[in-house]
């Protein structure tokens, strides 16, 4: 069976028998939630029996848009009957969402066996929760007979665990201010970290239209072949679809993606450029491209669910993503009141996100995320007050259920509920739904 891994003889029985127990233990294994660096992960990967990926690899980094690019790559490739493995993070509802083989999330049993193999291979090397998951995903992919592995960077790029694998194509979706404690406080500094996924002689796509100067300089230093949106490829909308423009192999009369949002053509175009770089090894006919564009889905990215009121789910948690959400809400007709179900992590730019979305939100329902880095209610309230939002427009709740229920009542049949600020917030509501 694809993705199965043989038991290792060192231990009579598995350390844990359930995925939940494995994940609870991993969260205590390393003293830090995030520890950037590749040495420990590289040593464990080399100790695993299957420490190689015998397939093409596309690595995707970026501040926003990574998940959408991965979704387009996956559905287009699978539409052409290629076997894919996708590793993404974080998950919204189930951990299994992170490791997907040929369109299906890995089972609890597969992941537990992979965790057991990683645990035995690591010896006394401490691993973070994310590093454990990355190694387990790569281990599963190595035995899954893949044509392509699509790997999403968790944080940054240069020192992220995913970067132990050399990609055939690198893709950087966007660069903006986020994770400043680890990546730097300027777009130029953050771009250097994301440029760490570049490899000598390999193509790297930059999908944004406002490229930091450190991206081309990093590509030149590494010797990577940089392909830039608006220069090496572009797109144009038509009355009934769009064209992907490339000097050698353009694609015309494509259907608009089913994923909502202004930026999805930018993400889809970058995915097509990445696939163009692999066209000799992985040829794609127009049918596969068209079908894949329409089939791509990604939960929690301007996802519209329900009626009376409409509910919008968006994981926007930094200024760039908040700007995109505000633009999309502006494009969406709403006859009634817009009510936010809102919470964020304490280390994010809460006031800036509030400032960007405040013209689109009539009422703010606040609640604390259940997470170690969650912003407490007083911090959320202070951010709203700093942006001039009157207390009358704010309500506080102790849990997601009460915040969401009250938001639906306040919005009424003609209004909308907008859930945003964190993957945790969207995941919480998805569980309720």
Gyration radius over CA: 22 Å
Low-confidence stretches: 1-9
- DSSP helical segment count: 15
The major beta sheet can be summarized as:
8 strands, mixed
Strand order of the largest sheet: 4-3-2-5-1-6-7-8
Secondary structure tally: strands? 17
Question: How far apart lie the N and C ends?
Answer: 33 Å
- The shape, in one word, is globular
Strand percent estimate: 15-25%
Helix content: 25-40%
Mean pLDDT: 92
Oligomer: single chain
* Class of secondary structure makeup: alpha/beta
Write the layout of secondary structure elements.
Layout: H1 19-29, H2 39-47, E1 56-61, H3 66-79, E2 84-87, E3 99-101, E4 104-105, H4 108-122, H5 129-142, E5 148-152, E6 169-172, H6 180-183, H7 187-194, E7 203-206, H8 214-222, E8 225-228, E9 234-237, E10 242-245, E11 251-254, H9 264-276, H10 286-295, E12 303-305, E13 310-313, H11 319-331, E14 338-342, H12 350-357, E15 363-366, H13 377-386, E16 394-396, H14 400-411, E17 416-420, H15 423-432
Parallel strand pairs: 1-5, 1-6, 2-5, 6-7, 7-8, 13-17, 14-15, 14-17, 15-16
Antiparallel strand pairs: 2-3, 3-4, 9-10, 10-11, 12-13
Helix pairs in contact: 3-9, 3-10, 4-5, 11-12, 12-13
């Amino acid at each position: 069976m694809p993705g199965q891994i043989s038991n290792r003889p060192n231990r009579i029985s598995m350390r844990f028998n359930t995925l939940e127990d494995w994940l609870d233990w991993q969260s205590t294994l390393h003293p830090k939630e995030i520890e950037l660096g590749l040495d420990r992960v590289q040593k464990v990967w080399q100790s695993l029996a299957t420490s190689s990926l015998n397939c093409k690899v596309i690595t995707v980094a970026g501040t926003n848009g990574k998940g959408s690019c991965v979704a387009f790559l996956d559905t287009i490739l699978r539409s052409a009957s290629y076997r894919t493995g996708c590793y993404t993070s974080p998950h919204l509802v189930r951990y299994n969402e992170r490791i997907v083989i040929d369109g299906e999330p890995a089972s609890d049993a597969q992941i537990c066996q992979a965790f057991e193999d990683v645990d035995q291979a690591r010896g006394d090397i401490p691993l973070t929760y994310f590093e454990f998951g990355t190694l387990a995903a790569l281990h599963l992919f190595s035995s899954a007979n893949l044509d392509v592995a699509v790997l999403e960077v968790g944080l940054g790029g240069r020192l992220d665990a995913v970067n132990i694998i050399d990609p055939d194509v690198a893709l950087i979706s966007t660069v903006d201010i986020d994770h400043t404690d680890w990546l730097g406080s300027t777009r130029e500094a953050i771009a250097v970290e994301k440029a760490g996924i570049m490899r000598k002689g390999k193509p790297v796509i930059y999908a944004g239209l406002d490229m930091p100067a450190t991206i081309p300089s990093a590509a030149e230093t590494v010797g990577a072949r940089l392909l830039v949106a608006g220069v090496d490829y572009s797109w144009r909308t038509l009355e009934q679809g769009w064209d992907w423009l490339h000097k050698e192999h353009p694609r015309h009369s494509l259907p608009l993606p089913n994923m909502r949002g202004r930026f999805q053509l930018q993400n889809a175009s970058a995915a097509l450029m990445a696939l163009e770089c692999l066209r000799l090894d992985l040829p794609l006919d127009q049918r596969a491209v068209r079908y894949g564009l329409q089939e791509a889905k990604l939960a929690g990215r301007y996802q519209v669910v329900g009626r009376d009121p409409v509910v919008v789910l968006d994981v926007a948690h930094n200024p760039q993503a908040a700007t995109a959400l505000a633009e999309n809400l502006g494009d969406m007709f709403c006859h009634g009141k817009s009510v936010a179900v809102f919470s964020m992590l304490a280390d994010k730019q809460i006031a800036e996100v509030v400032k960007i979305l405040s013209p689109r939100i009539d009422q703010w329902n606040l609640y604390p995320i259940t997470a170690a880095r969650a912003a407490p209610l007083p911090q959320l309230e202070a951010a709203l007050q700093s942006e001039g939002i009157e207390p009358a427009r704010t309500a506080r709740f102790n849990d997601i259920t009460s915040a969401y229920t009250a938001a639906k009542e306040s919005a009424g049949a003609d209004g909308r509920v907008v859930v945003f600020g964190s993957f945790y917030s969207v995941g919480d509501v998805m569980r309720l739904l």
